[in-house]
Amino acid sequence: MAYEGPRLPAARGPLSAGVREYLLGTGPLPSTRTVAEAPAYGDDLQLALYLCYEPHYRGFAGVSADVEWDPDLLRSRAALEQRFLTALRADTPVHDSVEDALAELLVEPVEGGGVSHFLRDEGELWQVREYAAQRSLYHLKEADPHAWVLPRLWGRAKAAMAAVEFDEYGGGRPDRVHARLFANLMTDLDLDTSYGRYLDAACAETLATVNMMSLFGLHRGLRGALVGHFATVEITSSPGSRRLAEAMRRTGAGPAAAYFYDEHVEADAVHEQVVRHDVIGGLLEEEPHLAPDIAFGVGATVLLEDRLAARLLGDWRAGRSSLRAPLMPHTSPTPENAHIS
């Protein structure tokens, strides 16, 4: 039987309900006024935007592939994007240069308080499982949003970006594709490895991190921001992955779970240098006017990752699930404690 994509998630408000109904051919898209009045980082807008982007990836079961370039859907998507991008530009700190933006990433705090520190030092297995479920929305499509930037680069930047992406896709070996390795991690954690399986459960802050990649990747005018985002991911990945590998071992998550992060410790340490010196350096040689966009991509990534970390840690330290529905079958907070936004 042909692959049909994941099922459509339940709506979280009028925006996502309208987009969902339009994808199914059962109702109209939301009005621009409804978009303008919605919280930019809220569940409803972020899910609506995610639904607009997913036809560019693997689509949804029961939704025609033709909607990918449906003019009305694209107009609605543009309104949602504008609301999101305006908020990002308003909330992201402005750096004087790309070097200043990157410098903040290169210094590891002596006493970190992020998610990887928490999971390494005190996290329980149910929290590790929740983290994997949340991150699966990106990791099961890992590298795909970044691949869209390749036609928009040339010369040294293009060659370097292609080399890093080649590694992300397993260097030509299907069993080494990073999305496949993450699926193995999920198997160790007794999670469903189906693409998009945890979309219904993921919080708005997780959706925003993935939506930002799609936003930057799909727009040629945001290619600098996409490169800034990618640099941030690669620079911060190696130390964070080391802590997460330790968390997997301490909580007994399983060998494939630890291996996924072990792989990223070494690979992303190399990728960091390539991205900083060749992707960013090559892009600035060709298009120096993109420096503010690269810095914006760095800052926006930090902004949304900090928002996600605050959500996860706030819920976990209060003994609540960070998900909109509890995971099964392993022990996790009861349904009464599931965080319903």
Overview features:
341 residues, mainly alpha
Poorly predicted tracts of residues: 330-341
SSE pattern, N- to C-terminal = HHHHHHHHHHHHHH
Percent of residues in beta strands: under 5%
Helix content: 55-70%
Total helices: the number is 14
Mean pLDDT: 92
Shape: globular
Structural class: mainly alpha
Largest sheet: none
**Spatial extent as radius of gyration:** 19 Å
Q: End-to-end span in angstroms?
A: 36 Å
Number of strands: 0
Structural write-up:
With 341 residues, the chain is mainly α. Helix content is 61%, strand content 0%. It has 14 helices and no strands. Helix 9 packs antiparallel against helix 13 (255-286). It is globular, with a radius of gyration of 19 Å. The protein starts with 13 loop residues before the first helix and ends in a 24-residue tail after the last helix.
